[in-house]
Amino acid sequence: MKVIVEYLLLIILGVEIIIGSLGNGFIILVSIMNWGKRRKISTVDKIFTALAISRLAFMWSLVIVLLIYELYPSLGTSGRILRISNFSWTVVNHFSIWLATCLSIFYFLKIASFSNSMFLFLKWRAKKVVSMTLLVSLLFLFMNLKVINAYIAIWIDGYKANMSYSSDPNDYGQFPRLLTLTNTMFTFTPFIVSLTTLLLLIFSLWRHLKNMQDNNKGYRDVSTTAHIKALQMVVTFLSLYTIFFLALVMQSLKNDIHLKSLLNLIFDGAALGFPSGHSCVLILGNTKLRQAFLSMMWWLR
To answer: What is the pTM of this model?
Structure first.
């Protein structure tokens, strides 16, 4: 039974990789084609393109790391391989999450409506706010890499000092748990930022609808539609992000060695659902991407 479940999970992982690769590749292709036609690219398209590139790198770096540790487990004790694999995964995961957070911030600043002077100041400088957010996130990335490097250095020293002790599966299992827990802690900040933008968007929509009712206007207008679309995008992003976040937490806390392989497949499947599923949401939620996708499907038919 366990073997059947593992094969099913492997199939799910393969489907997620295919969907994620095609979806993010499609976003990159459409952005490049639009840039070639118009010789300019909007801020949203820049975020979409960078996000799609980071998502592709995230998925395939995860696949490569899994293959290395499954096919060549002895390389897991190499300090160079440990640093390359963990650093590359941390970097692409960082940009994948923070670029999506920047997209939520950009939608919030462009669509929400508040009379607060601070909000108006940020709204007029939405591009700079996104750029500064991404720049500040590099500080978190630097701190994350420093902590991971310290963990790797300590583990390598212990492994060299006592080969027999460090090679024990139970002791070695502590190492990836510490790394996963560290990455989970550093993904909590963008999650809170995205959640805050969602709550503020809901409050902005509530105020907008209240003002329309007081003025005896219709229920739907351009602003209301924009609010609802932005909320759908952010809610879906946060839902997938929550699953991804919980998968990281559970992976850092798991202790059952006998079900280690099965649990890893479950958590990896939940993690890959974030970049692959969100790319589909972006395509369906963006008018330009949706029209390009429908045109492609019509051409294929």
So the answer is: 0.83
